Amino acid sequence: MAHLSPVTYELALPEHPGAWSVTRVWISEALNEPYRALIDAATEAEDPDTDALLGADIILTITRGIGEGRTLCGLVSRIDFLGYEDHHLIVRFHVLSAVEILCQRVNSRIWQQLSVQDIVSEVLGEGLGDYARSFDMGSVSRGVRPRDYCVQYRESDFALVSRLLEEEGISYEFIHDTETNKEILTLRDDNDQYGELENIDGTAEIPIIISNPDEADVESIQGFEWSKQLTTTGALRRDYDWRTPREVLSARAEAPDDRDRERRVFAHGGRRFIDDDLATRARDAQHGALLSSRIVRGRSNVSAMRPGLRFTLSGHDRIDLEREYLITEVVHTGAELSNVGSSSDPGASGQGYSNSFVCVPFDADLRPRRVTPSPREYGPQTAIVTGPDGEEIHTDEHGRIQVQFYWQEEPSYAAGSSCWIRCSQSWAGMGWGAQFIPRIGMEVVVEFMEGNPDRPLVTGCVYNAEYPPPFTLPDNKTQSGWRTESSPGGGGSNELRFEDAADDEEIYLHGEKNWTIEIEHDKHQTVGHDEYLEVARDRTKKVGHDESFEIGHDQRGQVGHDQTLTVGHDQQSSIGENRTDAIGKDAQETVGESKTVTVGAMLEQTVGESMNTTVAENATTSIGKDHTVTVGENASESVSGDKFVESKNSTTRTSKDMSFASDEKYLVEAAKDIGVTGETNIVVEAKKKMVFKCGDASITLKKDGKIVIKGKDVTVKGSGNVVIKGQKVAEN
């Protein structure tokens, strides 16, 4: 006599009331996977609008006896019209959760500085709202750290949520709310957050009953297959952070198997660049491998069994297997034997319900497997450089930029449109290398490291219709180079251009303002033909030591105004032949000490007006032959001290008068004769006294008129008369 009540099925479509009789049921559900159900049902309604049922809410209640039963809520995703039987329309309902409908929402978008919980909440809130569904974050503690950058790229909303939860080690199950008749996606990250399965006797214990399980008082397990297999025992995770390039980011989690053997999986890449989470990811990988090493597969008639519930096994031959387990997968099959369309019993026991399940020991650290593929984009794409309004160059201390990708649904073209992206340069050293920062509005080429959209890298720039090349094409197709743009405001540029047209080759350099060249050692410059230098204003040249220059032919120079040359020590000029100096006005020459002028042949000086020569101390003139001085009018000579003139013969001739004056004595001395000749008169005048003296003889003339003639003998001869007059004439 059977003690277990049969399983009954009740189907409801709230939007389309009507009587439906369930004939067959197949349900597949698992942790971290959306469930699916196939429900065959019959109705006596005449010509029901089955198409209108597509997308409608559907509720299946599985009940054993008078218990509360198990409810499955979902959406009708497909309807199969199976025909008529005994005046009943037979329909097959394909049932999905609203979460799986998110597979049909594919998007490409970016999140910055948000946690996985924030991103998942946003995506699920948007996607489930149209279906009046909700989700429950539960009490999960994982996924709260913000990610620097997270990209959904050509990825469905469902795949994005699944991938992020798997990366963070967060599981999910579905709770079917009997009050709202809606399924609720519920997140879990700890085993203690899972509920207990309740058998019909109110306990969480499920016995193994192999024979006649329908005669038992409780639901039971008919098959229990314990499997243990070799899996990896450890995980090593490694990554690279450009902010600490010399630091190896590495973490490992490993433990040998029962035979003290290790099997480690080494993986690299995939960091989220806010926190170093390698240790957590290594542990999750290890725990996931250990979880798959102990698997239970079984069969039961427990109608309340679903993933995310735990139970305690009893009645097993092996006492060590009588422990607590967590259900991870269940496949339900059933039929309403009395209804139309159920000609055979799908259950193994003859009942209208059975299931197969997978479970794991509850003491295992349950983490979702990484099964959702990450989006990959291996080819380059372009984007527009963005930044704040009013700025032309927007970068940070690392030379990174932000961009707007064309595939974003609602582009902002503003600062923060992407994460800060590093830019590839032709050279990048420790404070040296190349530096070209793409500017706002430029179109740049973006590639993704290892194809990961979360790791963009700018690798170049391209021109477009708004930003054409600097040298007009195809006219200037032989030109290559760089032209920059002054910032802010534009209007100016610096340019280095190479012209490769045959016979017109040229290197062109343009600076909008200043040009500074600094050479630490030597500079060599060779010009094969002509060189032309034009400086619009001032030019300063400073040579720390020597300067030499050599001109093979002529040198010409022109100074529009003044020229000043200061030589700290010696100056030498060597001219092979002639030299001509032309000075339009004045010329001054100052020599601090000595000056020597040597002329091999003749020296000729011509002064148009006056000429002054000032010698602070001595002046010596040495002339090998003749010296001629010609003065057109007057000549003056002033000697503050003594003057000595020595020559072989000296002749001074004036065309008119000639005067000699001395403030004190005037001495005329000759080693031999002195002759004074006057064609007319000779006057010798003294204000006080005049003395003519020769040896012992003298003639003295005094101002009072006295004349004294002294001598040994005095002879007065006259060819004519000799007249002696005086007031008194005395004789010896």
Explain what the structure shows.
The chain is mainly β and 732 residues long. Among the domains are: 7-97, Roll (Pnp Oxidase, Chain A), CATH 2.30.110; 234-292; 376-486, Beta Barrel (OB fold (Dihydrolipoamide Acetyltransferase, E2P)). The chain has helices spanning 98-101, 116-129, 157-168, 278-292; strands at residues 7-12, 21-30, 33-43, 57-64, 70-85, 88-96, 106-115, 134-136, 146-156, 171-177, 182-188, 195-196, 205-207, 221-228, 234-239, 249-254, 264-268, 294-300, 309-314, 324-335, 353-361, 381-386, 402-405, 443-448, 456-462, 479-483, 495-499, 506-510, 689-694, 697-702, 707-710. Strands 1, 2, 3, 4, 5, 6, 12, 13, 14, 18, 19, 20 and 21 form a 13-stranded mixed β-sheet that branches. α2 packs antiparallel against α3. The protein is rod-shaped, with a radius of gyration of 60 Å. InterPro entries: Gp5/Vgr_OB, Gp5_Vgr_C, T6SS_RhsGE_Vgr_subset, T6SS_Vgr_RhsGE, Vgr_OB-fold_dom_sf. Residues 578-588 have a biased composition (Basic and acidic residues).
